[in-house]
Design brief:
mainly alpha; Arc Repressor Mutant, subunit A; 3 strands; 11% strand; rod-shaped
Length: 130
């Protein structure tokens, strides 16, 4: 089934900014982790933090704006669950960053592995004007 789905992996600059902003706070990372495990109400989430319900709602709103979570109404409650598609897109972005760094390190390793030029080789190098 997953192979048949077309998943957009490229994030816009604004989306990248929202994702990193959302993940920059330990409370929001914890909310995201908890909602990956299972869908929870905002009230249920708020019980575990030493902050006001309104403060937890703000954290949820930041995660929702970054589309890392999805919120839905069920009666009077607002249920929150992680959005696996956006998490996958953020993971793909981080994987690309990792590839860039690994490529840079590999190039640096290659440069460091090259034997240094001997004095004779440096002296035999063509001079300007030759």
């Amino acid at each position: 089934m997953y192979n048949q789905m077309v998943v957009q992996t490229e994030l816009s600059e604004a989306e990248i900014d929202r994702v990193f902003h959302a993940l920059a706070t330990a409370t929001r990372r914890d909310i995201l982790r908890r909602t990956i495990d299972r869908e929870q109400s905002v009230s249920e989430l708020a019980r575990d933090y030493e902050m006001s319900f309104a403060a937890v709602q703000k954290h949820v709103a930041v995660l929702e704006e970054a589309r890392l979570i999805v919120k839905r109404a069920e009666g009077r409650e607002r249920l929150v669950r992680a959005n696996p598609e956006m998490i996958a897109r953020a993971r793909a972005l981080l994987a690309r960053y990792e590839e860039l760094w690994r490529a840079r390190i590999a190039r640096l390793d290659d440069l460091l592995a090259e034997p240094p030029a001997s004095d004779n080789e440096r002296n035999e190098a063509p001079k300007r004007g030759d």
